[in-house]
Amino acid sequence: MSMTTSSLADRQTRPAAIGTENRSSTLLDAEAIRAEFPILAQINARGQRLAYLDSAASAQKPSQVLDALDDYYRRYNANIHRGVYGLSELATNAYEAAREQVAAFINAQARECIFVRNTTEAINLVAQTWGRANLCPGDLIINTVLDHHSNLVPWQLLAQQTGARTAYVPIRADGQLDLAVYETLLAQGPKLVAFSHVSNAVGTVNDAAWLTQRAKAAGATVVIDAAQSAPHRPLDVQSIGCDFLAFSGHKVMGPMGSGVLFGRYELLAEMPPFMAGGGMVASVSLDGSVWADPPARFEAGTPAVGEAIGLGIATGYLDNLDRSAVAAHEEHLAELARAGLSEIPGVELHGPLSASARSGIVGFTVEGLPPGEVAKVLDAEHVAVRAGRHCCHPLFNVLGLDAIIRASFYVYNTEDDVTRLISGVEKARGLLGPRSFTGTAPGHSGDPCARRLIA
Ligand code: PMP
Description:
Blueprint: H1 5-13, H2 30-34, E1 51-52, H3 63-75, H4 86-106, E2 113-116, H5 119-134, E3 140-144, H6 153-162, E4 165-169, H7 179-186, E5 192-196, H8 208-217, E6 221-225, H9 237-240, E7 244-248, E8 259-263, H10 265-270, E9 281-285, E10 288-291, H11 305-321, H12 323-342, E11 347-350, E12 361-366, H13 371-380, E13 383-384, E14 386-388, H14 393-399, E15 404-408, H15 415-432, H16 448-454
Parallel strand pairs: 1-13, 3-4, 3-5, 5-6, 6-7
Antiparallel strand pairs: 2-8, 7-8, 9-10, 11-12, 12-15, 14-15
Helix pairs in contact: 3-11, 4-11, 5-6, 12-15, 13-15
């Protein structure tokens, strides 16, 4: 086999849309980037191209990632770490090179990065290992009302299992976290603080470094849900100072079933395993087993090898684009969308009032129109958005909303996508007419989490 894994990575992570000479440019050529995502070439029966505005749910994948997956399965598909033959060594090297790549993506050490299936699994891993080993009855866990179910329910379960208690940082009228309440809760000496860096429902960007620094000063361990920040902005676990951080591969243009848990090595080294089986042990006898060192300790069984390799390629692709430029591009589109939508009578925008606290996510409702129906009209215009409660039921209860429409922007979106969104919403108003909206029962809102809850 002539190709080494590093030459493979070098060739595959460079977006064709960007050359070395404009590496530091803050302007992205979104049309050129878009051309690297085969799925976006789709045209509907009316000749409309796909305006994909649901990247907060799952991002599309560039050819570089698709090729890496294809290459793995066609050329060197083999189990890792256990084989001495060429294919297995190639697969092992590529898998470990991907770990180095994702570590560089968040400025961590490779041994601090555990491959998991997604953010949900990463947070459950921390709750069921570090959490069960460290929390006692009466200990305080702090979350925020902005958090996704994946960063709420694992802590609720842990509280049930250990007798710990939970408290939530509310939001103020301007849509941002109430930091005065946060300080009051911190004064109670919490054991754990877990928060999302960026809200998936309304796009609020929290100051992760500041929240972490305050929590650490109060003696807490800090877990950050970076599912909505890792894909979109520079992320440095060392400058943030957190103990754990989780993100999903499928939202950073990587394959489904790939994700990363970062944990500070001193903590990982003390933690018991999450799942037990092959690959996570140093030795096994009939009397007991000795755990392998991290990260292997937390990767029981055969991992998703090709998917981890694809994730490494995806993070390299994003790094080559310059993640500050990625954030600036998305925020520009989101602000354009907000400006255009706010001109439409009956449209209400949700999310923080301050532009500096907003990301590339735009949440809105149209007076008198059920969000799911607006989304269907947009779909007929080949504009893909999501409507529902976005796995944030507590937040929606606080906001007094049944559901919202969410348009989320990424590197491959263009100003044309914004125009299509705005004209689609105008069309929905025209077609559906203002009706009285009596609310959506869980399971009928188009919210996949609600469906999952009643399934
Ligand atoms: N946290 C946030 C903020 C999210 O947006 C999501 C996905 N919508 C998750 C956690 C869960 O991600 P996954 O389903 O990939 O585990």
